[in-house]
Q: What sequence folds into this?
């Protein structure tokens, strides 16, 4: 999946998920005398479904094919999304009830967006901690998600309020109606959260790989782990299937300090960097060409390094 498609799917997926969360949030029968609890529960459902959707898109984009790993990744995201939605709805409504200041409703959705944004990267971060690996890459992924989610939550909350107010004059039906103004506002909120999280992941990324030739040419992968594996095995971060000259675990990209290195896994066919066979960990520069079997990869990096 390319960066462009990742951003598109996150925006559309976030909007659709928010609508589903809005609908589910109206199933529990909570009276108007418990408005704080009602808004917290509605926020919980929104956070759960949006976090689930974005984590699933992130897992598929990063090439996860192992069902167990996908379930674990999505499970962590769902827990964090539920927490974010509940806290955002609860805190926002409590302070709004005390002051009637709309800014606190915005603050509540910022909290929700912030935790939804952190959710997809937490699995990698916790995994790195348990394996005693370098956590800088996963930590940066979490930070990018937090920034995107917070900005998306703020922008989406503003749009929610504008859309809700503008459509009240047109759709005056029952609150649970499909065409309810709050439903359209929630869709806008979810789209903004998904869009800004994806944009932050792409724009603020430090390094990435693009498949120029071979299996799924055009695919792009952000390097957010201390070690990114390349090969035919389903467990590899970048799977290059259908090429018999590619080993199950063919090569690794390692992050050492602020540098990225390519290392061959002692394969018979070898790994080539700019036409020369790699012999041990070799530093990478933006624009470098990596050939693995019949597949050609392109390394990209924000930081410019001298030739």
A:
């Amino acid at each position: 999946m390319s960066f462009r498609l990742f951003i598109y799917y996150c925006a559309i997926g976030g909007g659709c998920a928010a609508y589903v969360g809005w609908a589910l949030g109206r199933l529990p029968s909570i009276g108007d005398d418990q408005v704080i609890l009602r808004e917290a529960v509605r926020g919980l459902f929104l956070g759960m479904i949006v976090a689930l959707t974005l984590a699933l898109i992130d897992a598929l984009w990063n090439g996860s094919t192992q069902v167990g790993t996908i379930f674990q990744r999505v499970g962590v995201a769902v827990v964090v999304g539920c927490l974010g939605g509940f806290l955002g709805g609860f805190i926002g409504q409590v302070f709004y009830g005390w002051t009637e200041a709309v800014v606190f409703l915005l603050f509540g959705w910022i909290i929700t967006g912030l935790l939804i944004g952190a959710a997809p990267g937490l699995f990698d971060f916790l995994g790195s901690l348990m394996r005693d690996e370098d956590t800088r890459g996963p930590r940066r992924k979490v930070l990018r998600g937090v920034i995107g989610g917070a900005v998306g939550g703020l922008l989406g909350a503003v749009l929610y309020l504008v859309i809700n107010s503008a459509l009240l004059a047109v759709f005056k039906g029952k609150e649970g109606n499909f065409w309810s103004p709050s439903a359209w506002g929630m869709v806008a909120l979810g789209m903004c959260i998904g869009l800004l999280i994806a944009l932050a992941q792409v724009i603020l990324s430090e390094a990435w790989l693009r498949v120029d030739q071979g299996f799924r040419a055009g695919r792009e992968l952000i390097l957010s782990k201390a070690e990114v594996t390349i090969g035919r095995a389903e467990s590899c971060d970048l799977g290059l299937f259908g090429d018999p000259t590619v080993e199950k675990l063919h090569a690794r990209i390692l992050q050492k300090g602020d540098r990225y290195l390519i290392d061959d896994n002692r394969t018979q066919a070898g790994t080539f960097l700019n036409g020369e066979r790699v012999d041990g960990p070799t530093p990478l520069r933006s624009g470098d060409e990596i050939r693995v079997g019949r597949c050609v990869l392109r390394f990209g990096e924000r930081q410019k390094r001298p030739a």
About this structure: Confidence is low (pLDDT under 50) at residues 173-179. DSSP finds six helices and eleven strands in the chain. Residues 67-99 form the longest helix (33 residues). The two ends are 30 Å apart (CA to CA).
